[in-house]
Amino acid sequence: MSEKEKIFEKLANSVVTYNEAAAMAAVSEGLAAGIPAVDIVTKGLSIGIRTVGQRYGEGKVAIPFVMLAAKIMDKATKAALSKVPADQMPKPLATMVIGTVEGDIHDLGSNIVSAVFSASGFKVYNLGHDVPPETFIKKAEEVGANIIGASALMTNTLQVQKILGDKLTREGLREKYIYLVGGGAFPGAEWCEEIGADGFATDVTIGLEVAKKCVAERNK
């Protein structure tokens, strides 16, 4: 194994083991060795967060540890990219506006999605909980978003996902945005089809893959 490969392994392992000090040390070691900052993120840290996400999907890791891993990766990523000139910064995979819909006060799920998506190369604007449809749209227009993500964790707020989709259609914006939905109350593919969303997920790792697939298809 080359020295560069050893550093990539250290970066990934630091995220998998939730070791912030090790992550920051590995970033410094990588930069000192002349490894490009983008490679430090994509070939080291990203491998770690992907592993944590897979373990979460398999039921081997609890939500708080996913959040911790994502926060460590986010801090390490910012440290790696801090010295990169603005014109050389990697372009985000997409810009996403996310929130929990109006009437729903639960935002743990959307916070997890925000952290993992941010750590995976997305620019994310998290609007929090109890977000009206018009606020999603206003923020998406303001920041030039590609994706709108609406979460519902209560069965009586699911309908707001449909209201948001209908509002996008009425305002002639439906084709402008990738519309993704999910949350603990989400009933599945039939509801996604009924409200005309582009994709759904109730698991952050699946959601990440759905988002990447939708972005790739949109960019064709």
Describe the structure in your own words.
The protein has a five-stranded parallel β-sheet with strand order 2-1-3-4-5, sandwiched between helices. The protein has helices at 3-16, 20-32, 37-57, 63-81, 108-119, 133-143, 158-170, 189-195, 204-219, and strands spanning 95-100, 123-126, 147-151, 178-182, 199-201. It is globular. It has two domains: 3-87, Methionine synthase domain (Methyltransferase, Methionine Synthase (B12-binding Domains), Chain A, domain 1, Orthogonal Bundle), CATH 1.10.1240.10; 95-219, Cobalamin-binding domain (Rossmann fold, 3-Layer(aba) Sandwich). The chain is built from nine helices and five strands. Helix 5 links the parallel strand 1 and strand 2. Helix 1 (3-16) runs antiparallel to helix 2, helix 1 (3-16) crosses helix 3 and helix 2 runs parallel beside helix 4 (63-81). The mean pLDDT is 89. The longest helix has 21 residues, at 37-57. It is 57% helix and 10% strand. With 220 residues, it is of the alpha/beta class.
Q: Major sheet: order of its strands?
A: 2-1-3-4-5
**How many domains, in number, for the residues?**
2
Fill in the CATH topology of the largest domain.
Rossmann fold
CATH architecture classification name of the largest domain? 3-Layer(aba) Sandwich
Q: What is the residue-averaged pLDDT?
A: 89
Total beta strands: 5
Shape: globular
Residue fraction in strands: 5-15%
Helix content: 55-70%
CATH C-level class of the largest domain: Alpha Beta
Give the termini separation.
37 Å
The CATH superfamily label of the largest domain reads Cobalamin-binding domain
Number of helices: 9
